[in-house]
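Example 3.2
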Amino acid sequence: MSRLIRVGTRRGLIELRQTVTNGADVFGYLFPVALLLGWLYLIRDDKVPGSDVSLGAYSLVSSLALLLVIGGVTSTAQYLTMDREDGTLLRAKATPNGMAGYLIGKIVLVAGVMVITCVVTLLPGAFLVDGLRVDAGTWLTVLWLLPLTMLALLPVGAILGSFFETARGAAILMLPVIALTAISGVFYAHSALPGWLQGLSQVFPMYWLGSGMRSAFLAGEPDRHLATAGVLALWAVIGLLLAPRILRRMARRESGSLVAARRQRAMSRTM
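Structure, written as tokens:
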């Protein structure tokens, strides 16, 4: 088991190094961050309506939560479908413990990209906005919230990605992810929503991630750490139990003829 973890981790670190040294990938990561920082600069002196909370600080924390959700769910699904489309998944299936090593590698890759994106957003953003709390309590919360969030979201992304055969198809996941994020109080007061939407949103990890991030970085936000940890842990357990089984079932259906057919369709679209 330890050897399998080392192999999977090494694979993930190699893929992480490849993506952070690829100009197109780096531009894709940094361009949205640059737009966000520009927006934060424009609203740096504004307040959240009806409160003394800095709109810039609230938006920065909310954006960090959104980046984590997009990275954990949609990016994982798209990586999986790209590897399914080009035959990487089929090759992993053909090697001993290949699927397990593949999954560990993808977890390392996506987690690394999520952390890097959040760091390059938070560091300059903290200098642009006022009202951001950064103390020992903040980092203590982040140290347990971030890994637990990854464990809750990455299996969901893998499960959802298994239902799509192409990365183009998996891109549609962005729509429900943004919709769920929108009703989770990430960008505006959760209390402004109808009661039934408030209850629905609290079933999903997005709401609890946003709540945990606000309690870590914004003064005056209520600490609901026990409930946040409980819901995220429940999603993590369910996801980690279901994801390997679903992915193994998906891998069993993979074949060289299916990969060749996907490549043919992809080539026909580009012609």
